[in-house]
Amino acid sequence: MLRPDAHSFSTRAHLELAAQVVEAAFGPIVAKVAARLLSFGPLTLLELGRDTRLPPSQVRNALLVLIQQNVVRSGARPVVGPPRTRGAAPQPTVQYEASLDEILVRSWFPKMATYTREKIGADEELILHELLVCGRLSVDELVQRATDTYAAERGLAAESGEVSDKRLAFVQAAAVLRERRYMTQSDTLPETLLHSGDAEPAAPA
Q: What is the pTM of this model?
C-alpha cells in the first residue's frame, strides 16, 4: 500500500513507468530500490534493506547510482521524541527520497540533446550527452569524457593537435551550458554511502 503522502498526485501507471525506466537504464536491483522509494516516500538505508530484502551493500550501491543520476536525494530525518539517555540529544539518521519527475524526464534525453545541437551547437550537445549519461561530474571530468569520445569516434590520438583544440572547445561549450543553466552545480555524493559498514549511518552534523 502506498504511503498517503507519497506522490499523492501520481497514478500507479506513473510509478510503474518510472520503475521500467530505471530498470532499463540501471538494472533490476536499482529499479527495486527506486520503486520502493517512489511508493513509500523517504526511507533510511536500514528500512530499504528490510523492505527490499536486499543486502546492505546492494542497497548502498543502488542509492549511489540513483544519487549520481540526480534521481534520489538524501537528508536528515526529523528526530521525534525525547532522547533515550538523559542529556544526550537524539542522533538523526539519513533518509533517501526519489524524484518521480527526474526519472520520467529521462525519456526526453534524446530530444534534449537534439534541441541543444540545433539551438547552440554540436560541442554543447556532446557535453550535455555525457552529462545526461553519467550524471554528476566535475567540469574537468565532463570535458575529458567529451574529448575522449570525440577522439575515439574519429580514431585520433589523444595528443594530436585536433584533439587538443577540441578539448579547448569543450571547455568553452561547458561554460556556455552553465551560463544558460543547462547544467548547474550539485552537491557531492554523501559520505554516509561511501563507507562499507552495515550500520545505519547518522546524518552529518
A: 0.76
Cα dist. 150→99, 117, 134, 145 in Å? Answer: 32, 15, 16, 9
Q: Which secondary structure element, helix H or strand E, spans residue 114, and what is its range?
A: helix 109-119
- DSSP for 117-182, written as a single string: HHHT-HHHHHHHHHHHHH-S--HHHHHHHHHHHHHHHHT--TTSHHHHHHHHHHHHHHHHHHHTTS
Task: Please tell me the number of Cα atoms within 13 Å of 116 on its side-chain side.
Answer: 26
Q: How far apart are CA 134 and CA 121, in angstroms?
A: 20
Cell of 50: 528490510
Q: Is the pLDDT of residue 64 over 70?
A: yes
Matching residue, cell 551560463: 179
Q: What is the pLDDT of residues 84-141, one digit of tens each?
A: 556 555 566 889 999 999 999 999 999 999 999 999 999 999 999 999 999 989 999 9
Q: Alpha-carbon distance 30 to 1, whole Å?
A: 20
The contacts of residue 18 (CB under 8 Å, 6+ apart) are 34, 35, 38, 100, 103, 104
